[in-house]
Amino acid sequence: EDLTGVENSFTDMSLMPIFYNVYKGVYAVAHALHDILNCNKTCHNDVQLEPLTILQHLQRIRFKTKEGDEVYFNENGDPTAKYEIINWQRKENGMLNFAAVGLYDASLPADKQLDVKIGSTVWAKNSLQ
């Protein structure tokens, strides 16, 4: 079944960053299985699935999500490091707000990997550093 054209609250991952990583992982395994089973019009069900075979295929996959994120793995089967930098900020009512103030993306050139919006950061005890 092709779900690429489906748009509803169950397939929108933009508001759920943790679940979005699971979504990308499931799609990565699906791409690897698709390659292993040689799925064109039908899949070859007689193929023996071994963990090492799946890992080897995972290392070779590369695809983009509908949000435009590129998914691929290194020679060890690990994804490229990408972290959102979160700053805990106390609101006027005392509640905590988790604000994104930057991004670290190891897939970018070295001089562009770390991007922090210092002006958006709230420091402890209202310090400036």
UniProtKB/TrEMBL annotation:
Keywords: Membrane, Transmembrane, Transmembrane helix. This is Receptor ligand binding region domain-containing protein. Residues 8-90 form the Receptor ligand binding region domain. PANTHER family: C-FAMILY ODORANT RECEPTOR OLFCD2-RELATED (PTHR24061:SF528), CALCIUM-SENSING RECEPTOR-RELATED (PTHR24061). It holds the Pfam family ANF_receptor. Signal peptide: none annotated. Gene3D superfamilies: 3.40.50.2300.
